[in-house]
Design goal:
The complex is a heterodimer of chains A (115) and B (113). By secondary structure, chain A is an all-beta fold. Chain A is 0% helix and 53% strand. In chain A, strands 2, 4, 5, 9, 10 and 11 form a 6-stranded mixed β-sheet that branches. Chain A is globular and about 40 Å long. With 113 residues, chain B is an all-beta fold. Helices cover 0% and strands 53% of the residues of chain B. Chain B has no helices and 11 strands. Chain B is globular. The termini of chain B are far apart. The model of chain B has no long low-confidence stretch (mean pLDDT 93). The chains are: A mainly beta (115), B mainly beta (113). Chains A and B meet through strand 5 and strand 9 of A and strand 4, strand 5 and strand 9 of B.
Amino acid sequence: GQQLNQSPQSMFIQEGEDVSMNCTSSSIFNTWLWYKQDPGEGPVLLIALYKAGELTSNGRLTAQFGITRKDSFLNISASIPSDVGIYFCAGQLRFRDTNAGKSTFGDGTTLTVKP
Amino acid sequence: DVKVTQSSRYLVKRTGEKVFLECVQDMDHENMFWYRQDPGLGLRLIYFSYDVKMKEKGDIPEGYSVSREKKERFSLILESASTNQTSMYLCASSFLGADGEAFFGQGTRLTVV
């Protein structure tokens, strides 16, 4: 199957710092999704990107869909303690069949924020 | 509030036991998924289903089977549990169309001893 390379694997930062993480793929995706998983919970969608070059913000979060369709990044500005968790990227292809909606996930970036 | 509910948060089973993990969603989603989450390996797809009684293998189906008799319910079955199936299991659902956000359950932490 398709593979996503997500980096960094983990980050330890001070409260107030900005964070950047990214995902790259050897093949194209038509949709990029970014999820956050709080400790002990399932992942929750943060941002969805549907067009190459698209830049989307959600509060302190900004994500971009790379123009090659093979990469995406997520930035978090002015981090706070509740940003702690695992962040996953996910890519989807738009099949006109029963595979539509199936995502390939990156391995995750574990974020630790020190107060 | 949309919901995906997994029947257990924690399970401890013995090697060789048959194990059922249940998942129910209340959003009328066509797609349902079972993932396994292990440290450093991200989310790996075990099986998914796009309709009642339909199932497709994911990336790591060996040792698992699934059942979808009703649209809202998707069960993961470990026919004979082994210690290497100790993991966090996550169920998710989404609409059939592409670009679909997946909604996840809270996860089941399974330990096989």
